[in-house]
């Protein structure tokens, strides 16, 4: 514990700082930099330490082809977030600035960068992925002159050089006396799957931006087929300020029949809408999201860690989209191509279901919309019902690279989806949704499992030749979590049928009551038929205690904890130990619960903001699955909240010793507040 606390202190001191309001994280050192995502559920912009740059833009649910493995891959789109600034003919760069800092404002989903340039100017700019305009972003600049300066600013749209047939344009669109300058790039995605169009423009706040005679003169320059730029020059007197914005919008043929015109319209909308109105709408939507929140008194670092995790789940999703969340959210293509895994249903979905049912509905509806593809996949593999893919994309077909055994064999995903569906109904009690969408999915999942099991001579059932949650053990029989998840999904299908007045298939109950759960000689849950104590990638057998609630007896729960914790890989994903934390909290052991809570993510945090990487040895931002595990430790462990058929209840909450209180607010449809105090 002392070593862990020392690590936390060093991280806090050397890599970042925080205001004491629990909402802001400020970085002042960028020599070791892992970016943070500014996102709105449709587009994600990954930050960079370099002035006026972002690393890339990720487009949700827009897939092209992974050039290496030839499977689908989420698209990194045209980058409209990079600008250049020259002051007195010298380019502003990381080499000639001082007092650099970046502050992430989680409450308003804004990233502010500030620095000083050669004692001539103080510069700051704030980046927003607009929640109210889901295909656009807005960067607001302020330049304070310390002496008389000449300034040149260039806005760019950079098309990745893998895109095909790029076309660059600039047009001053006119309607009566209103003039609207629009820079635009158009191209086909690398493998010609989507037509992509991106528009951008400057906005001046100190003048009438639409009056061509008052604003600075614009210069258009096509640098190359892949770089289209728009510049202006102006002067700023000593002690005066220049405030302007750059806005961009990116649309594709995935979502629009005419992405060119739509991206232009969005930019024009941003141009002609007052800044305060536009940003207030964005902030208002984020304030609505934060009605579902976690408040920790007495531990500022844990407060920031929890908020950063919840911020990312909110930033990577939308309640109006019927889309899901990839493990890396809207931060990166790699390593999982933007595909949807069990990470959503088992790790991210539970905290979102607790705190925001609109987003939770999008996540389950994503699966319903792909039910037909799952039914066809079951037929293709000789089964009945619906067999959901391990990696899913916009088509709902299997998107796992062929070399990975998880694609053909990690079947627990189908049960995980059924569990999420019933939990959504447990919380919302939306019987129409259950009738129209929930039960049709649960029925097909149940039918899959009764066709997937193998009957044994003793009347039991086995599930053979699977990859379980512990992917270090491929092609095993009677994996603990796979069997437990199948039992639970079958039970939930029976309950769902009865809830809407349908007679359930009696075989669902019969099979669920006789699927094997293997044991070692001392009664410890055995991970699979041939398990002999090997190192495991992540929690597997322990998932039968939480969230499945199959192993309930305290003695057996503890036996499983003690046996499997030492076997967890030290470099495993940033959510494995969160399961152990939750179970210890539910047993009333706060010391072990807190130890494992911190150990589940602290080693995976990366400077300067504390972004989570999947493993202790990688530095990719941002592992949303780990955020889900962290939040579940707080909500379902320390907070003691549970999903039940009667709704959300609280059992035996417990506080770490140095926490003064824990408040979980905005819970369920009634937006309840649960507060635990010493």
Automatic annotation (TrEMBL):
Residues covered by the Glycoside hydrolase family 65 central catalytic domain: 307-501, 526-600
GO biological process, one term: carbohydrate metabolic process
Signal peptide as annotated in the record: 1-18
GO molecular function: carbohydrate binding; glycosyltransferase activity; hydrolase activity, hydrolyzing O-glycosyl compounds
Keywords: Hydrolase, Signal
Source species of the chain: Formosa sediminum
Pfam family, one: Glyco_hydro_65N
Protein name as catalogued: Glycoside hydrolase family 65 protein
Lineage summary: Bacteria, Pseudomonadati, Bacteroidota, Flavobacteriia, Flavobacteriales
Domain Glycoside hydrolase family 65 N-terminal: 34-163
